[in-house]
Every structure is written in structure tokens, then in C-alpha cells.
């Protein structure tokens, strides 16, 4: 486990706009989350949501010296964590898919409220793929979805991380959400 | 290869989302401009957007930890027996943590609220600890229990509460799209909890959605009972919290008495419950003020009537659609439900006066249950029970004439009875009663204190009374009156008719029936008769022996009447007050001077400018001596003096005064003081009038910015400044920005006052007229159309604003030559002008003039003549003979006469108009040119050639200057001049003129241009007149050839030209016998006969055909001679 001051220092630099610092952070956060996730997965209930929240919380407590980090730094941590969480959740879904292959269901949904009002489950892997395609044309917009959906960042926090206005984030979000919704529904209808 | 970029898609998509849903498809049609693939792409994204529902809205980190929870030094430490696990919330008073008690035997989760350092003083903490014991006894399934409390090691007080895992009530409801009834069920659970607390004598004081959670099982849990008292300084004025803390707590759910710092009782919770219910059902807060602006919100809570719940959901749009969707209903159903008893229940809970709300939460809950079971409810809409009773008891209000009229109109005693009450009641009902009560009390006080006559106290008393009326908004009162009338009538209809009558159609019917009635006037009349006259009477009766108090009260009442626009009625009491004060205190006392300064303002309102100046100057001089130049009162009276002399025409004098005053104000009060801002607005406007827009701009902008900084964009002065700024920008040619400002002003007015308020309607009308000035007719038409409709419905047909909008729209139609429509509008405008402003008012004259122009255009000249004669006669009495407003009327009159075949009379008026314009604008002005042209034409019609020849050169000069030498109208004038000179046999002059014009045309034009043919023909005549036969013949034949080549283009008759040529050759051979032109003569004669067989014969009229298809020819060859005139040549 990396020393809290390392991560704290990296966070500090990331919040000042240091790209390499962000790149260095991701593997640290990812590894820590993975480790924690594996540990928990053995004994956990199926409820991924609480787990994810708790995981991030725990990772944060372990990795970061909280007294040293300002609000901005925390936003950056969560932004990085959102990437890691995405990866972990997708990996987990793929792993379960592989396990069940040959069984009844070809793909597994993350069963909780990754769903719209009519309780239609969102396929996590499909979302992940669509997000990659979106990132191709609209990298920032895709990043907003990642941060908000996988990292739970607020509009203001996203704005801080990307260095644009909250209004822009809202626009990105609206667009990306519509884009992804269309992408996923088209896929399902075979259009 | 795709035909669009992703950036384009995103841009159009983003923009489309800023529009209301119904306008989006149209917008993208426009924005994509026929690029189908792009359009399809955006459209499919928009469809996806609309269908996306909650897609992705919930993060995988379900609780949206918002990051902040991860950083607190308390984390992981112990508070009492609890270990702090994580932060779960927080606010102004401190943070809330999840704690775990782990004492081996059982695991207990708790919420620990740690009060931020410095919020509570030591004494308070001690009392708090005592009270905590009481709170701990409060157990109820819907109340989160207080378990424990104490002080942390570093001295922070904390509370330990039952940990509730749940969601905020409003979020819970919205997320599940709960119906109204399901929401009411939850609300009733809250009521039970509050009831229970009240039984234990605990008042919550801070009931808000954040304090109400719903557990997974759907159980409501109330948090923080009784805590607000300790942590909110508002509720506990002796608390030692600081101002900043207070600002941090939102007052959105606080009752008026809490805001005023008055005593708080269980009925305060009733009020807060009312607000919660209101929001739960409508999705909006009861006041239109933003909840972020605490100061204004507080004012609204204390003073404004809440918007009726049903009204908040009637305006269609995205927001309402969403609100309805979250309630699994549609807006009409929701509206119906809220309009009925449910609305009454909420409004009863929200009453300002605690004693008029439900006496207990039990009553409130009971009424809600009654409503559910369709049983009669306890609450009565404001008027009927409570106020009607009061009305009868007091039996003081007279039913005014307007009411009697309405009574007949509506035919319902219930309504008219309520109406009479509403009249006096809308906002100031209580105040009016207080005034009466206060006067009574004053009398008692006075009886004891006659000897002392303590002026100070009385000043306070009368101040209080004045404040009762000071902020009445008559327009608002009128509107409310009108709304109330409709609501009452609808209620009455509902009582009588068991059939499902459509409420909408009933409402529309009523709306129609009330259209055009001026409710503001009714409100004013009623107030005057019911309140002020009575007040004045009381003053005379009760204070006959105390002249000082009498003067004071008279002045106050006069001031209030003044501010309500009742200038004439205010004068007498004010004059009395002045007389009394002069006698009591002398002329130089500040009390006397202040009253005199009021008289100055009043006179301004009456437009009696010289009298205003006299009064204001007297006050000004006196005040400078007694209280100094820098006192705000002196500065304000200076603005009155300035306004008075400005209105009399002395703008420079006014400017000097205002500039001085502003300088003193800035030096002594600073740039942000409202007196300084007021002066800047006045001075800025004056500069604007003087055309010094660049000087005006910074002043006006400063006013706007200052109010903005203070969060008071909607202050009257700020909005006025915004209007000025728009004018400034318009003058600077920054028309887009100007429109922006006007639009902003309109939007602010809409938000602040609603669509129906006069200032909103006026702003819309102004914006419309501005759009006209910028020739954006399409938008202007739409806006003005709506404005007329609204203005007519709300303010009445007979209202200046209606008239202003009518003339605006009329002008558009006039420009677009939609004569019949324009005529209709201007007829209305004229009628309004005559009845509202009088026949001699400039606005009326303006409307009459425009109507006359249309009538003339439509050939209705008899009527045109009549109205112009009357208007001119009146204007001659008022205006300078060279005033353009008069001159334009003279010209229209003259045109009318001309078209009625009365050129002789027309000539005189045309000449007067021309000379007037020449004197006013000088010779090189468009108006001068037009008038001169009219004059010349009318001379030519009458064959007054010498006169025409005298004025045409001047016309030519100005035409060349303004229109250019080749403009058809210029060429026409050239031809007219040459023709006139030819006929006058002034051939030498004609020759020069003809050569000149020929040169001009030849230089620029095609060789077969009909203008060139005509010029050559005229030159032929001239040469013939000069006996230069050979040249005449050559020129004439050249002209003939041109005509032959371009016969379609010209109305000139080849036959006439051929005949002319025959005459030339004939005259030539006579003059010179050596010449033999017999063949030529014969040839041209035959040609002439041949040509006339091919052309319609009307040989008596020279160039007389107008080619409708060619505008140049139409202008050029429109006949300018009288029909019986023939071209006579030797």
C-alpha cells in the first residue's frame, strides 16, 4: 500500500492541473480498490451499491491524509476513483459473464438502480462500450458521465475537475445522457 | 463522409434544450437549414433525451457522498460512547455524523449532531442541557428520538439521535412519482408527529423537507425537534449567534412571526406545515421570490399573499409538466384539485396572522381528512366567513359606485358582497382596520396627554399609520380584486351547478365579462372613499384642538394619497397641513418646509410646473439654510426643482442643479446611497434628453450595478435605469444591446409583478415600439398584438397603455400597407385618446393624423378632411406655426383636398406646409423636399406654370442632394421644369435644362432608356421653339427611333412625336422657302395616323399612360398636368 502522503501529494498536484500526477494516481487508486473489493466480495451481499460507496470511502481513508486535502483535492480523488470504479465494476461483470456462460443468461446486469423509471436494467458492459464510443467524439462529455455515474461527483465537482463552468457540465451531461440512452436502446432494438 | 460535425450536433442540441419542448422541432428545422442528416441526428438525440427518464441519474455510489463526508478530523474518533464512522450531513449549525455504539452487547447506529463552535454561548449550553431531558421524553413512531447529548473534549456541544436511514420526504415522493393522495398520506404522518410534540409543549420551529425523512418502509420520521430554538438566532433572539449564521439559515419555511422575532407558538408550526404541504403538492414555494435571496424572501413572507396553489401549476411549460409527471397526474387535474378545498386549507394554514390560521395541527389534519372524504371543511376562503362577518360587525365600508355597477353586471349578491370587501381588503385590509383602531387609541392617548403634546411620539404614531399604506400597489390591488372576483364567482357556480361545467370555459366567460373594466381605478376609488375620506374626516373631528397633530396626520394622508396617484384629492389636506404648520412653527421651520416640498412634488404630478417650481424653490432655499445642502431631504427637493424647470423647457438649468446635488450627495452620502442613485438616475435621464448619451451611460450603469450588487435588481429605480439604458444604447446605435435590455426589463417586470401588471404591459409595449424603430416588424407585431389583448382585458380599452400599443401595431400595418387593419386600430386609438387624454392631447393628434393618412390612402377623403380640419384647428391654438406635428397634418389635409379635386385650396396648405418645414428644418431636409414636391405638383395640376417654374429649381436641387441626380423622382422634376419652361416659351432656359439632363442621363444610361427618349422629345420641343428646325428634326427623329425600339417601356406616344415632327418640317419649309420638306411632312403625318391606329387614342393628353409594371416609368410619367391641358405649340 502506498503511503498516504504520496497520494496526497499527487492529488495536490492533480488539482493544480498536473496531468501526469493524475495518470500516476489511477493505478494507485485502482489497485487499492481492487484489493478492497476482492476482500469484500468474498463475504458481501449482492448489493453492489453500498459496497461501491463503502469501498471508495475506505480507499480514500487509507490512501489520503485527510487533513492535508482541500475540497478540490477530494473532487480530484473521486474523479480518479470514478475511472477505477468503472473498471472494477466492468471487470466484475465480465467475470460473472464468463462464469455463467453456457448457463441461462448471456449477460449480467448490475441489478440495482442503474435503471430508468420503468426499472429497465442497464447493461453495464453495453454502457461501458457505448461510453468508449462516445469518448471517441466527445471525450469531455464521456468523462462527465464517468465522474457522475461511477464517481457520484456533483456538477460543481465535475466543473472543478474539468476546469469549465457548471453550466457547461450540465450541457455535457444532457447531451451525453441522450447520446448514451439512444446508443443503448438502438442496440437493444437492433437498429 | 458525413455532412455534419459532432460539434454542430452538440451545439444545436444544447440550444434546442434551452427552448420549451413544443418549440424544439421547429427550431432544429430552422437551425439545420435543410440538411436532413444533421436534422435527423439532432432529432433522434432530442427524442432520446425526452425518453431517458432517470437513466444514469443515480450514481453507482448510491448516496452521492458529495465527497465532503470524507474529511473531518472527528472521523474515527469517539464521542462519548460512540465511534464516529462517517459524516452524513450538515448545515449552518454544524455537521452530522454516523456513529456506532459498540459495547459488546449490541450494535447501535446513531446520528451525532455536532454543533459548530461559537454558535452557542456557555449559558445557552447549560440551558440546552436541561431542555434536552424534556426532549428525550418525546417518543413517537414518527419522531427521531433524541438519545443523548453532551460536550466533546474540545468543547463542542453535540446531540445523539436515533439514526434514520431514509430519504428526504420530497425526494422520496418525486422519485416514486407519488400521487397527491399518497403525498397527503405521508403529510398526515408528519401532522401526527407534530401533534404529539405539541402535546408535550415542544414546538419544532424548523419544519422543512430536510428535517423529514422517509424510511424504506415508508415511515415518516421527523428530525431535530425543538432544536431550532437553540441554534437559530431567529427563533431565539437572545442567543449569542452572529449575523453570519443567521444569513446561513434559509427562512423559506419560517412563519412571519418567526421572521419578525415575535413570540413563536404551535401555530408557527402550522404555518411551516402549510409551506411544506404547499411544496409537496405543487412542487413550488408559495412566494415567487427566489429562496436564495433571504432578505427579499423574508419581506415576502411578512407582506405578500402567497400565490394560490392552483395558480402555480396552471402556466404550461416544461416545469409544470415535470411537476405533474412526478405526481402521476396532469396539470388540469392537479389544478382542479388545488383550486378546491385543498387550496383553501393550505391558504388558511399560510395566513399571516397566527390567530387566523388553524388553531392546532389537529384541526389542519382534520380538514385534510375531510377534504379527502369530500366532507365540508372548517376553513373558509378568506372572505366569506371571517371577513364578511367582520364587515357586518363593523358596518363601515360603503359599497362604492363601481361595486354597484359590478353587482348589476355579474348579477350575484355573493360576489358583489365579497367584492366590496375585497375592494378595501386585498393587501391592506388589516392595515385599514389598524388605522381606525389606531385613531381610536390615539384619541384616548391624546385625552390624557393634551397638555404635554409630545410631538416625538406622535411622529412615530403617524409614521406607523403612513407605513400602513405606503407600499400599496394600486395596480396590484386592482388585479387581485379582479382575480378574486373570478375565483369567487367560480366557487359560486360550483355551488349552484351540480353538472360538471367546464371551469375553463366559465373562467373565460367571466374574463370576457370583465374585459375592459379598469380595476385599478376601482381600487383607487374605493380606497379613497372608504379609507382616506374617512381618515380625513376622523382627523378633523378628533384633532380639532391639536393643530400640530392634525397637520402631521393631514400631511401623512396626503402623502399616501399622492403616492397612490390621487394627486387632486391629496392637494387639499396638504394645503391645510401647510397652513397649519406655517402658523404653528413659522415659514422657516423644517417641518413647514418639508410639507411645502411635498406640495412641489404633488404639483409635478398634476403637471402644474410653474406652481411646482415656486413651492419646491421655497422649500429648497429654506432647507439649505436650516438643514444644510448635504441633507438627503435638501437633495431630494433639489430634484423637484430641477424636474419643474426641466418640464418648463430649461434643461440646462435643471442639469446644473442636479449636477451640484449629485456632487454633494456623493461627497456626503457616498456613491451607493439611494439618494445618490436617485440623483444619478435623474441626471442620467436628463443627459439622455439632451442627447449626451455618453455622459448618461456611466451614471445609469452605475445605478443598475449598485442595485445589482445589493441584490435589488427589481428595485423601482433599478428597473427605471434599465429602461434608460436601453434608450442610451438605442441612441448609440447599439440596437441589439438595447433590445436585450428592454427584454431584460420586460422579463424582470414579468417575474416581479406578473404578466398582467401595468408596468409589465407597459414594458412590453415599449419593447414593441422599439422593435418597430428597428424595423423588426414580425416580432413587434406579435408582441403588440398580445399586449393589446392583455392591456384591453386588464387595464381596459380606455387606457393609455392600450392606446400606445394600438398605435404601435397600427404603425406596422401602415408601413405594410395593410390599410384596412391599420384603419381599425387607429380608429380605436383615436377614440381612446379622445376619451382618456382629451381631444387636444398630442397623443390624440398623433393618432388622428395616422388615421387621416390611412383614410387618404384608402380614398376616404371626405372623412379625412373632416378629422384633419378639427385636429389642425386645435393644434393651431397650441403649437408654433412651424411645428412639424402641425405641418404634417397640413400636408395630409392638402393631399386630401387635392384628391377631392380641390387643388386651389390644397395649394395654400401645401405651401404653408412647405414654408413651415423650410423654416424648421431648412431646405435640405427630406420633409421639406416632400412638401415642396407636393406643392409643385399641385401647381402643375392647375397649370400654374410660372409658379412651378419658380419652385422647381429648388426642388431639383434638394432632390439631387437627397435622392441623387438619377433618381426617377429627380428626373421627373427635371422633365416638369423643362415642360413648364417650354410652355412658358422660356426656350433659352429650357434649352440649358434639357441639355443638362440629357447629359446626365446619357452618361449613365442605356441608349434606349425611355428617360432619354423623353428628354430628347422635350429638347425637340425646345429647339422647335427656338426655331432651330434642323436640330429639332434630328433630335425628334432620334427620339422617335428610341421609342420604336423600346415601345413597351414607355407611355410616350409615337403618334404624338410623329405629329410633332410633321409640324417641325412644315414650319421649317415655311420659314425657309428654300427648304423642300414636303415629303417629310407627308411621311410623318402618315406615320402619326398609322401609329395612333396602333395606340389607344387620347391625343389630348400628352404622356398620359402609366405603365403599371414598371415603377420607374410609373413615377416618371405619372401625369402631372390637368387633363384638359394640351400641349400647345406654335
Polypeptide structure, described:
The complex is a heterodimer of chains A (191) and B (1130). Chain A has 191 residues and is mostly helical. Chain A is built from 8 helices and no strands. Chain B is mainly α. Among the domains of chain B are: 6-50; 71-162, 2-Layer Sandwich (Phosphorylase Kinase, domain 1), CATH 3.30.200.20; 166-378, Transferase(Phosphotransferase) domain 1 (Transferase(Phosphotransferase), domain 1); 674-732, no CATH class; 943-1130, Serine Threonine Protein Phosphatase 5, Tetratricopeptide repeat. Chain B has 51 helices and 9 strands. In chain B, the strands form 2 sheets. A 6-stranded antiparallel beta sheet of chain B has the order 1-2-3-4-6-5, with helices on one face. In chain B, strands 7-8-9 form a 3-stranded antiparallel beta sheet. In chain B, helix 27 packs parallel to helix 29 and helix 34 (735-753) runs antiparallel to helix 35. The A-B interface holds A 48-50, 52-53, 56-57, 60-61, 64, 66-67, 69, 71, 74-75, 77-78, 85, 89, 110, 112-118, 122, 137-138, 141, 145, 148-154, 157, 171, 174-175, 177-182, 185 and B 6, 10, 13-14, 17, 44-49, 51-56, 58-73, 75-76, 86, 177.
Low-confidence stretches of chain B at least 5 residues in length (pLDDT < 50)?
63-71, 231-248, 383-432, 446-471, 1097-1110, 1121-1130
- The CATH class designation of the domain at 166-378 in chain B is Mainly Alpha
Radius of gyration of chain A, in angstroms, nearest whole number: 17 Å
Q: How helical, in percent, are the residues of chain B?
A: 55-70%
CATH superfamily descriptor of the domain at 166-378 in chain B: Transferase(Phosphotransferase) domain 1
C-alpha Rg of chain B (nearest Å): 41 Å
The largest sheet of chain B is:
6 strands, antiparallel
- Summed over residues and divided by their number, the pLDDT of chain B gives a mean of 77
How would you describe the shape of chain A?
Answer: globular
Largest interface, by Cβ-Cβ below 8 angstroms: which chains and how many residues each? A-B, 51 and 37 residues
Distance between the termini of chain B: 81 Å
- Content of β-strand of chain A: under 5%
Structural class of chain A: mainly alpha
